[in-house]
Amino acid sequence: MRFSEFNDEWEEKYISEAISIKSRKYNPENSDVNYRSIELESLAQDSGELLSTFDSKNQKSIKNVFNSGDVLFGKLRPYLKKYYLADFDGVCSSEIWVLKSSILDSNYLYAFVQSNSFISLTEILSGSKMPRADWNLVSSSLIVYPSNPDERKKIGKIIQLINSRIQTQKKIISQLKSQMSNLKDLLFAQQLRFKDENENNFPYWKDFRLSDLGNTFNGLSGKTKEHFGVGQKYIQYKQIFDSAKINIANCAFVDVEENENQNIVQYGDVFFTISSETPEEIGMSSVLLENVNNIYLNSFCFGFRTNSFEELIPEFSQFLFRTSKFRSEIVKLAQGSTRYNMSKIEFLKLKIKLPCKDEQIKIAQFLSSINEKINIESELLTQYENQKKYLLQNLFV
């Protein structure tokens, strides 16, 4: 894949002839100069973001000096793809390569280290507990690049532009999620209220115990690993943990006999994780908002089925059970030391406040509209990331 205006031959060199990792050393104990310091954890995974910097005078280890325009690449666990195009002079951990080139401009070099051509060279590792990329191996390999500097600049520029667009898209999503969280807290604390169609206030919210609203039911029982992979759909633990709304397309399969005594899920059921590795992850919820047939629930979760949608509508449930207030109450139910579990009996004793059905509908519609916006922006982010992946695969040899 090339730009139409270029037809020059590409050049081939050993990487050691085009790229260097030589940099001055900085010892904070022997220097009066204070730099911004980048550690490996400062670099985001596979995005080029700089998450943080540190004060070099407060650190003891010897660092590598880098300059604005140098490309940093994390050699420790390189499969994490931690890279950064420096826009300031500073120092960095010895676990980060400082890449320089007298031939390639900074943007092209930065694009090259993100390409499969470079990443594949770093995947042959030395060390087991702390695997590192081997520069001797990388530098003795070949790099093929455009001989025309204008073509190199154009390739570097287009990757830079799409990187910038991806970062902007991530910020848009982050802001929407923050807005969603803040509005949800205000709505469920009743600090923000809707009015009815006649601009009248809705009634005060009422107190309920969960046992007043419905009952729990168990997931699959009596299944071994031989039963999974074929048969009927079942909702997996991760589906519940990852999203407040069940996506049926992500279900797995389990073999269930025709007359077997197993609970079948239905529209409006709320599912909760009953076991987790930390107390903070116990009781994560997700709601089924589709009409389905013959779908089951995994054995590490339980379902909650309401008695009446006049008291609690499913669309409202998807937000209610993930509010910070409810989550703080449910975390208190976690029991255990290495693995945490939750009692369904204690779960049913929890109290919640509910608005009338009409206000539930308004709140659910309002928050769903923000959710839909987040989903649209997330899909757009995926398209940009796929576009970048395609370009990196096809613009480099």
UniProtKB/TrEMBL annotation:
Keyword list, A-Z: DNA-binding, Hydrolase, Restriction system
Q: Which SUPFAM superfamilies does the entry mention?
A: DNA methylase specificity domain
Question: Mind telling me which residue stretches traverse the membrane in this protein?
Answer: none
What domain of life does the native source organism fall in?
Bacteria
Any one GO MF term held by the record is: type I site-specific deoxyribonuclease activity
Family named by the database record:
Belongs to the type-I restriction system S methylase family.
UniProt-recorded name of the protein:
Type I restriction enzyme S subunit
Residues forming the Type I restriction modification DNA specificity domain are 205-383
- Native source species: Chryseobacterium sediminis
Task: Note the Pfam families from the entry.
Answer: Methylase_S (PF01420)
PANTHER family in alphabetical order: TYPE I RESTRICTION ENZYME MJAVIII SPECIFICITY SUBUNIT, TYPE-1 RESTRICTION ENZYME ECOKI SPECIFICITY PROTEIN
- The record's EC number reads 3.1.21.3
What's the top EC group for this one?
Answer: hydrolase
